Amino acid sequence: MIRSELVQLVEVITGHVVDPQAGTGLAAALVSAIARPDIVVIDVVDRGGEHDLLGIACASPTSAIVVFTARSDTRSRLRLVSAGARTVVAKGDGSGLRSVLSELALAKAA
């Protein structure tokens, strides 16, 4: 799933506009520090993603961080959750991502 599709999906499910967007983990941490979003969706590609998550979690501790990744084995999931992810969704699991985003949007609205 490419970023534009992910943005559309998040906007449709949550009813919120996705803005701003960041192209790197560092940029996401900086944007999160300023915007304090309810939900952060981050695509973790490599093992350095845990550092990005820590930065985002520290910058915006109330944001629910959803990781969308191809690295969805149990060990990777544990590392990502330990680094600050609220949940980890495997790439290719579009229905799982929809479900997680819907639940988070409803929880934030309540």
Give a description of the structure:
The protein is an alpha/beta fold and 110 residues long. It has one domain: Rossmann fold (3-Layer(aba) Sandwich). It is built from five helices and three strands; from the N terminus they run ααβαβαβα. The protein has a three-stranded parallel beta sheet, sandwiched between helices. It is globular, with a radius of gyration of 13 Å.
The residue ranges in which pLDDT falls below 50 over 5 or more consecutive positions are none
**Tally of DSSP β-strands:** 3
Please give the domain count.
1
Largest beta-sheet characterization: 3 strands, parallel
How many DSSP H or I helices?
A: 5
CATH class equals: Alpha Beta
Write the layout of secondary structure elements.
Elements: H1 3-14, H2 25-35, E1 39-44, H3 49-59, E2 64-69, H4 74-82, E3 87-90, H5 94-109
Helix pairs in contact: 1-5, 2-3
